[in-house]
Amino acid sequence: QAFFCLLLCVSWGSSCPPSCQCTERAGAKAVLCSSRHLEEIPKDIPKDAVFLKLDANSITKIPSNAFRHLSHLEELDLSRNAIEKIDRAAFKGVAAGLRTLDLSSNRIRSIPKEALLMLNAKLRLANNPWHCECALQEVLWEARLDPDSVQDITCHTAPREEYVGKPLLQVLDAGVNFCSVRQRTTDVAMFITMFGWFAMVIAYVVCYVRHNQEDTRKHAEYLKSLPSTQDPAE
Hints:
Elements: H1 2-14, E1 21-25, E2 28-32, E3 49-53, E4 61-62, E5 75-77, E6 85-86, E7 100-102, E8 122-124, E9 130-131, H2 134-142, E10 155-157, H3 168-173, H4 178-225
Parallel strand pairs: 2-3, 3-5, 4-6, 5-7, 7-8, 9-10
Antiparallel strand pairs: 1-2
Helix pairs in contact: 2-4
């Protein structure tokens, strides 16, 4: 009996990352890894984890499929880290079941909207050095943001200086559309490119015509330079 007890304890301990604490919360497994000086997401998080706290660490990146094996995950706290990059498939495999995702107080300047596709979780994105542009505007349109923290999504950088330091929601409410700015920029770039190609075609046609004219002139001069032949009957 003591042997089975020991085996159970060893089995429980081996299923929990050494830098974390695994416990039960309302009958569901909670994995607590807060303030453990982690620089990356632990690889051996239990598959039946429902609550995962990775806040107050030094994690810098959320790679693709980082939580794919955690099909039961409902709450994920990644706040107060040093996250700068989030891959497009970072939350693949957990998007459908996740209820809350906290990415506040990191170093995130932009996030691919593909990373949030199919994500039904309530998002916290406050207190990051956001670059206000079309991609972030699309995230706000499509994501389910926590209403208590949406006012703290502030423009750290922006295409125009007047937007810097202001809440993104306030800027958008003022009628600014970063996506239309990008569209105009794209249209101008396409116009310049098309004009460049058109100019090249015109230049080629002009050079071709001049070259043919020069060849025709030289051929005419060559024919004139040939000695004339008289008819024998004369």
